[in-house]
Amino acid sequence: MIMVTVDRNKCDGDGSCVNVCPQAVFKLEGGKADPVNMSECINCQTCVENCPQTCITVTEM
User: Global pTM?
Assistant: First the structure.
């Protein structure tokens, strides 16, 4: 299982994660990134690498 978390205090909602995620894990809700399809995450770390605010963490449980 993979856990995707977003530090909503740091997220500015620029949508980088939404645009680069090959599995459509993220959706912008309330102006912030929300990992709504976490079960689809393949742990590629593309969202982590492309987030300018470094607010995304992907952890394999």
Answer: 0.93
Identity at 27, one-letter amino acid code: K
How much of the chain exceeds pLDDT 70, in percent?
Answer: 100
C-alpha–C-alpha distance, residues 25 and 6, integer Å: 12
| Residue where the block lists tokens 């689809």 | 40
Domains of the chain (ranges; CATH) run: 2-60 (3.30.70.20)
Distance CA 28, CA 35 (A): 9
Query: Do the beta carbons of residue 42 and residue 24 sit within 8 Å?
Result: no
Q: Which amino acid is at 30?
A: G
